[in-house]
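1st attempt posting a full record on here, be nice pls
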Amino acid sequence: MKGQIMMTIKTDIDQHIKEAMKAKDKERLATLRQLKSALQNEQINAKDPLTADEELTVVNREVKQTKEELEGYQKAEGDYAAVISKLEKRLEELSRYLPAQLSEAEVEAAIREVITETGAAGPSDKGAVLKVIMPRLKGKADGKFINQTVARLLGQ
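the predicted structure (as tokens):
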């Protein structure tokens, strides 16, 4: 199954690259090629085919880097509208490869469930809750938001 999942993502990316080439969409093509390259580099470093979780980690890393870059330009003074637009399109394209994102209410419900499971009672239990919740929500919610929500629910 491990190889099948990878082939699906790789096949999807290859198909999307062909579509972008036919449409002469240079920005989308660049994004797809960069994602494909990041996945290939990770596979070379791992010396084994990537698991679905490892692929998700690579996509998440690309999304996170793009978000950080976008936030930097949004905060910067000056006319960066063209760059911001390009980064927003890149973020949208990369997000296609992530699982559906959970709503804030769904994330909070999942965290409350883990707090109950672990018996967490206060801020000192934050690490134990994060250790359980992060793998469950990997790729489905923003890590920073999860961390902040756990802290809020534990009274930090």
